[in-house]
Amino acid sequence: MKKIGMVMSLGVLFIAGCSSRSIPTIGDSMVTHGDESRLIGEKWNKGEEDIQEGEGLIEKGKQMVKEGQDNIKKGEKLIREGKQLQQESEREYQDKYPEQKLLKPE
């Protein structure tokens, strides 16, 4: 009975290996030892999948943070430029129309 389980495990391992990765993982090796270690190997493989997914999410998050920081810098630059334009406009207006008083909102 153990031979049948081992043959089935090897078959599953072969199919899984062909479809997703070329080198067997530690978990794959555990799975081939028989039914008793199959669950341990599957657990290890799930851990590997979680690690890969986690690393991908971290990289994606880092990229999002970088983009956010770039947006903050662009926004701050636009605000500085906008305030400068407003100040220049107020000065030009006062120079051109000295008798007029600008009402600034509070």
Describe the structure.
This protein has helices at 2-20, 26-31, 35-96. The mean pLDDT is 83. The chain is 82% helix and 0% strand. The chain is an all-alpha fold and 106 residues long. The protein is rod-shaped, with a radius of gyration of 33 Å. It has a domain at 38-93. The termini are far apart.
What is the CA-CA span between the terminal residues? 86 Å
Give the rounded overall mean pLDDT: 83
Task: Tell me the strand percentage band.
Answer: under 5%
Compute the number of helices.
3
Shape, principal axes of CA atoms: rod-shaped
Sketch the major β-sheet.
none
Report the C-alpha radius of gyration, rounded: 33 Å
Order of helices and strands: HHH
Q: Using DSSP, what is the number of strands?
A: 0
Secondary-structure content class: mainly alpha
Helix content: over 70%
Q: Unreliable runs, pLDDT <50, ≥5 residues?
A: none
Organism: Chlorobaculum parvum (strain DSM 263 / NCIMB 8327) (Chlorobium vibrioforme subsp. thiosulfatophilum)
Region (Disordered): 84-106
Protein name: Lipoprotein
